[in-house]
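Need a sequence for this fold. Nothing fancy.
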């Protein structure tokens, strides 16, 4: 699977992580006649599709290109794997807690259960902050790996800051970064 992502064209990656999830969202809105309660039933599935594409692409870059890192340069892959996993765990937990919270409000005729709200906030807030950090670290690690392979030397943040922001704004960055990854994979094959 890693090879498929690394060899995929930029437009294919764009379709996988941007067009398909938004098309599913549009389809859900059409099917449900824009009924927000019914759309929420589709939302977890759409988010999973989005994150599978995005995380698959990030994973493929970080793990697939590491064999091209020059010897003597150490990249902490274990830390990357952990921080990429955190948002994947956070999303279903947050959705379930929000679902429980909204159900409790609905069942109590619009009155908010303070205890349920407090527990949800106490769980979601730290997970949310940790998830944001996990995302940022994942993009940081992928950009560093990508630039290390490209320059074939130890890199500092100033060397890959532009790539970090291109990855962070992936709908744009995929059009610039993926063609270079394709070249790296082709050059490695020769």
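Here you go.
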């Amino acid at each position: 699977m890693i090879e498929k992502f690394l060899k995929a064209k930029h437009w294919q990656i764009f379709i996988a992580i941007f067009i398909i999830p938004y098309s599913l969202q549009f389809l859900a809105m059409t099917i449900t006649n824009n009924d927000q309660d019914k759309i929420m039933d589709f939302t977890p599935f759409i988010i999973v599709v989005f994150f599978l594409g995005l995380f698959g692409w990030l994973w493929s870059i970080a793990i697939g290109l590491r064999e091209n890192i020059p010897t003597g340069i150490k990249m902490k892959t274990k830390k990357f794997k952990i921080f990429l996993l955190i948002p994947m765990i956070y999303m279903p937990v947050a959705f379930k807690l929000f679902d429980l919270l909204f159900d409790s409000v609905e069942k109590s005729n619009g009155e908010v259960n303070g205890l349920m709200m407090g527990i949800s906030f106490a769980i979601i807030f730290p997970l949310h902050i940790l998830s944001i950090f996990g995302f940022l670290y994942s993009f940081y690690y992928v950009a560093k790996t990508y630039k290390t392979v490209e320059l074939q030397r130890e890199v500092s943040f100033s060397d890959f800051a532009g790539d970090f922001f291109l990855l962070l704004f992936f709908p744009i960055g995929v059009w610039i970064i993926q063609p270079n990854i394709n070249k790296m994979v082709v050059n490695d094959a020769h």
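For context: The mean pLDDT is 87.
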